[in-house]
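Supplementary Methods S3. Input chains for the assembly prediction are listed below.
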Amino acid sequence: MLAKLALRNVKRSSKDYLVYFFTMTVVVALMFAFNSLLFSKDVQSMFEQAALMQVMLGLATFFIIIIVAWLINYTLRFIMEKRSREFGTYLLLGMKKKQIARLYMRENVILGMGAFFAGLVCGILVQQIILSVLYSMFSLDYVFNVEMNGGCLIMTASCYAGCYLLALLRCKRKLKKMNIYNLMNAEKLNEEIKESHEEVKKWLLPVSGLFLLLFGLWLFFGKNWSAEIILLFLTGLVLVIYLFYTGLASFIVCYVRRKGALVYKGQNLFLLRQFSSKIKTMRFTMGTLTALFVLAFLGCSVAMMFNFYQDRMLEEKMPFDVQIHSGYTEEDFAAELAVIEKSASIKEAYSYHIYENGTDQVNVFLYTNLKVFGDTYKKEDGSPDRQAISHMHDFFYCTYDTFMGLTDYNRLRNMLGLEEISLEEDEYAIHIKDRVFRETGDFSDRLVIEGGRGTLQFAGYYTEPFSQDGHNGGDYVIVVPDAEAALMRPYYSELAVELYGETPRELKHELDEAAKRLDFKQAMGDPDADGTLYANSCIGSDTIMVYAADNLVRDNIVVEMKGILFTLIFPMLYMGLVFLCVALTVLSIQQLSDSAKYKFRYGVLKQIGMGTKQVARLVLKQLVLFYLCPALFAVLISGIIAGYVGGKFNFYSGAATPSALYFGISFLLFFGVYSIYFVATYVGFMRNLESGEK
Amino acid sequence: MKEYINVCEVEKYYGSEAGMTKAVDRVSFQVAEGEFMGVMGASGSGKTTLLNMLSTIDRVTAGHIYYQDTDITELDPDKLSDFRKENLGFVFQDYNLLDTLTIEENIVLAMTLQNKNRKRIEEDGEEMMRMLGIWEIRNKFPYQVSGGQKQRCACARALINRPKLLLADEPTGALDSKAAGTLLETFQKLNETKKATIFMVTHDAFSASYCSRILFLKDGRIFHELIRGNKSRREFLNAILDVLSLTGGEYDAR
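Predicted structure tokens for the full assembly:
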């Protein structure tokens, strides 16, 4: 009998909780799809960092379980409140509390199972989308292939069950505490609006605004980044997210009390009061929602920024198919060329030297003038701190400035399809990373480059991508006429290779293996030694995604780097989406349950002369207010942070990341999902109101 | 007295062909301007259905209801809500105050919906609250005041737009006898001094005794009518109780 009743109850309330059901389905679908990445053998073999991604996804799963458990608990409490009268009746009829609890649990298990299986079906679809995105990221062809891995199923099921278990336990406790009277009257309870100290509390609103302003200023212009300050600001941010709503509610209450000009216009009085009382009672939930929105926004924006980097910067960073560094100036690269020729056909190979003349004026200039180094290499009077710089030798920049002969330079430009340049005998040019150049501007007036026949004249800057993470110099290389280069000492050797067709997948690995043996034996002076030598130095000032290695094989590294980025992007998107859906569901459930509980309010409005259309418009306005408030607040906070992160991204990575665009796209994506929930809520709301009239 | 509201042969059926219920069966009567009219009847006699039709909340199955020259049975829903806004005021047994608004805001809300100017809203609001004795509690929320005060607030809200007709459905149903007395005296005062036309549905003889005319409803039809004339309230109450005892005394008389 209980089973029958449970089933019927589920059927009856399924319409009311469509939004909840939908979200649970989406959550299961996402869980299943992302978990399948953990278990898929194909994915694991696709890139080396699969293990790292498993850790990241595991971490994401942890947060997701907590948030989803919160959602389930929240919903269960709401359903319980809505149906308290029914539960009271069961008690009156002589059912035991235990039985009711069991009935309720059973209903929820049915609902949950329904969502689970629906989610699995959708999950297969999502899985296909994710896998095809993944394959295309690695430039592989994806063939439709449903991965039904036992481990994945078990993991999804146990995550999901874990969420439910956490939530149901809490709910059971609440059910135990209820008595018949409370249950029967819970529905009738009107909202009790407690107003106290509103005049004081309203100051929280401007204070929150001021804090956000300070927070923004600190992020963009702040110099003091001590752990205490960061902690202070983060704590402040969390507090502000929560206190903002108390402030806003009180502000509106005070405005209404003061009888501000807007109060007496049309339906404003009702709207303002409705809104303020709602956010007042829900301030904690609203704060949590805002936090979730902020995380979702940031997750999406940052994921896209990384993706941009992946799409464009990696190829820019490595313009040559293969680039090999050797600290050994007599290197002829014969062994490396042999390795390459074994598996690929060489279109063009060119080996050359990077030179030095014992000066370090450019290095010192960059150490003391780039923002990324701050004041680390400056003395208090602003002059270069030689001692600090000498400690960093061969890390960011080499000990000496790096030079290149004009013929070598033009040959490399040729290989890249760039126009050759010409220099007079007493001229020099600088090839520098675009990002660095944009920051320093022209600094040639600070340089005095002595050639064999006097001081060289500056002839121009070139900023095309030129493999300047330690190969063709770090950040920059000075191009001088061949006669001048001949007077300098070779610093290290480089080999640039262009290949025909696709680069073999294992080329870098093979090169590394070969180099490992060669270099180590050379360095140790012992033909039997085995081990690894550290890669090239002088990597330049980029800090996000620096690939410092002796052997650069672009297509191999791109795949590897994509793997790393992928481990960051996918978990972020995963969390962002789940958080968004959870937050929206809570908003929706709030409004829907209100529409049922406080139906009479709209009935009263009709009695005092509002038409059905007017009420519909009023409901729309109310929902828009309620939905927009946390979203806009989150947009404000995450906008500040995304702007900052984007700026830092440009600054450190050298990529001109269009962060505003990505924030905009996140925003659109967000509002796409948002509007689905909004429309569903509005329709449900109106249906609830109308159902009361019949 | 001028004929103000004219109810002609109104019928209301519920249900399908198979099981038809006649809630109101060919009822006709007139209400004059400034009249305090009561309708009495047992549960299921059709009195609330009648009130709902008069108040445009429910539609008639057949017949017409004229407010002066306007036939409200012919109006479309939009016009009906405008009509409601401009002509009718409501008082219900369970007050129906908005719990998120203070007493004062509940009252002025009705005026803001009509886009009246602020000065007028404030003056009229104050006058109405003072008259009904709720000025002192104007900044309280409904849950903070007594049932009688809530009902007077509902009256103030109903009357603030000077409706042509005040409709009251068991207004004293949830009040104790003292609060009920105060409310009914208020109705009487409004009726006498402000010339408010009141249409009250009740099954309580004590409440009905404040009216100037009473219709008795049974099974959807009018079966009796009492006019107070020059009788004192006590005499009128006795007359009402006599009618009720005739029908078997199924009404409770306080």
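The two ends of chain B are 32 Å apart (CA to CA). Chain B has a mean pLDDT of 85.
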